[in-house]
Amino acid sequence: MAIVLPVKGVSPEFGKFNWQAPNATIVGDVQLGDYCTVWFNAVIRGDVNKIRIGHHSNIQDGAVIHCTYQKTETKIGNYVSIAHNAIVHGCTIEDSVLVGMGAIIMDGAHIETGSIIAAGAVITQNTRVPSGSIYAGNPAKFLKLVSPEAAEIFMRTANNYIEYASWFQAD
Q: Confidence class of residue 170 from pLDDT cuts 50, 70 and 90?
């Protein structure tokens, strides 16, 4: 069973058909939509501000989702994949976005729909990533547009993680 705790009387809320790894931690003012998965050692910490996560999104192993006290909440849309060991802090991520392994997205950043943040990229404070862009590097810069062929990765990855979670369900 995941660690799910209230903070100052506010408990996390979960949509239908969510799955959390037994050592995931979800605390405070957090809302997850339907069909979300939170993986091993992931932390979603809504202790100092709100965290909202849409439907069919996955927070993979070791990822940290947090926000800034009285300043920036974190909003994550539908069909978003936050890969292993990524840090998402006080920012907005629209629908159908892939955040690569070890990427960092800082306060006030805004990642528009259909974008890819490359593994290890650092999106600095208040950066706006235009829809359909791939950003890479430290600090992250525009690399190229997401090709129509690559755009299927958003739905495929989100659906794969729902399937993977089903492997942990009791028969």
A: low
Residues sharing a CB contact under 8 Å with residue 44, sequence separation 6 or more, in sequence order: 12, 24, 25, 26, 27, 30, 32, 38, 51, 53, 59, 65
Q: Tokens standing for 53? A: 């996560």
Cβ atoms of 122 and 99 closer than 8 Å: no
Handedness of CA 28, 29, 33, 37 (dihedral sign): negative
Span 3-59, pLDDT tens digits = 999 999 999 999 999 999 999 999 999 999 999 999 999 999 999 999 999 999 999
Looking only at the bridges linking them, the beta strands covering 140-145 and 133-137 are antiparallel
Number of H helices, E strands in the chain: 1, 20
Its pTM stands at 0.97
The size of the chain, in residues, is 171
Q: Which two tokens stand for residue 156?
A: 């495929």
Tell which residue, 91, 59, 85, 53, has the closest CA to residue 72: 91
Q: Is 112:129 a contact under the CB 8 Å cutoff? A: yes
